[in-house]
Amino acid sequence: QTIGGDFDIFINNAGVYKYVKPLETLEGEWDEIIDTNLKGLYFMMQQEVSYLLSVNRKGKIINITSIAGIQTGFNPYSASKWGANDLTRGLAKQLAPKGIIINAIAPGVALTDINRELKDEAGDNEYYPVHRTGRFTKVEEVAELAAFLASNAANNIVGQIIAIDGGWTLI
Predict the structure, then answer these.
(1) pLDDT digits over 42-91, tens only?
(2) What is the DSSP letter of 18?
């Protein structure tokens, strides 16, 4: 089904996370995570780009990925987020000349439903020692970065994966 209406900004934020032991991952677990986080993103972007091209409109696509796609990992979640980052960069490179700007935001650990256990444990406490800032990434920070990337101030930011992780991924 195609997208209709007057849209020029798309934010793709669907994802699933399930901890699986690297050498004990079942095929069904792999498929569930890859199908949602990578295959789903691929086909959403395909529809979004098809729509923008069909109405000859410039636009922005912002993918919410994860720092798991920046760090190394041997699990389906990391593989799906590496793939999401690659799709972001690959399509951005092809479509920037047509005025379709694509970027991604890669949050660190944020207190969202995907981290339900941490959210329940933390309550209102923002402390998180893994991030160099000593706190969780706030969902408001991710939203504000998305608003910036959707704005005209970010028209020349193309194909970037912007980590918002309190410095966790710094080498």
Answers:
(1) 999 999 999 999 999 999 999 999 999 999 989 999 999 999 999 999 99
(2) -
The active-site residue, picked from 17, 51, 77, 128, is 77
DSSP-based three-state secondary structure for 101: strand
What values do phi and psi take at 87, rounded to 5? Answer: -60, -40
Inter-residue contact 89 to 159 (CB < 8 Å): yes
Residue 17 among the catalytic residues: no
Residue-wise DSSP of 129-163: TTSTTSBPBPHHHHHHHHHHHHSGGGTT--S-EEE
CB atoms within 10 A of CB 32: 14
pLDDT of residue 4: 56
Res 1: pLDDT: 45
Q: What pLDDT, on a 0 to 100 scale, did the predictor assign at position 124? A: 61
Q: What angle do CA 164, 115, 80 make, to 5 degrees?
A: 70
Q: Which two tokens stand for residue 4?
A: 């209709």
Give me the residues of the chain with pLDDT under 50, please.
1
Element (H, E) at 76: helix 76-95
Dist. CA 37–CA 30, nearest whole Å: 11
Helix pair 27-34, 76-95: axis angle to 10 deg: 30
DSSP 110: B
